[in-house]
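Now for today's protein:

——
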Amino acid sequence: MFFPTAEVRNEERAKYIEKQKQRQELQRQQEEREAAARKAAEKTPHEKALDKLKEAKELLNSIQIGSPMNEGYITAALKQICDILDFCLTEIKPEISSEK
């Protein structure tokens, strides 16, 4: 019967530790790639504001005289417009501060 020597066990342990480090590094790289992909897919605040503006226009265009749904459309459109104005004000604010 063969019993591995301490030297053989240490070599195996070193190989195992090295493989673990490689796995951890590959995992870290994969997470970085996923995070970069998520960030690339994210819309900029300007794009988000343009989307809200488009939604507001669609809501305003869907308002019809005498329709019982007008109140809901008007409320939703006003909320979208407020979100757009909020975005515009927060984007312009740094420029106003630098001009003073």
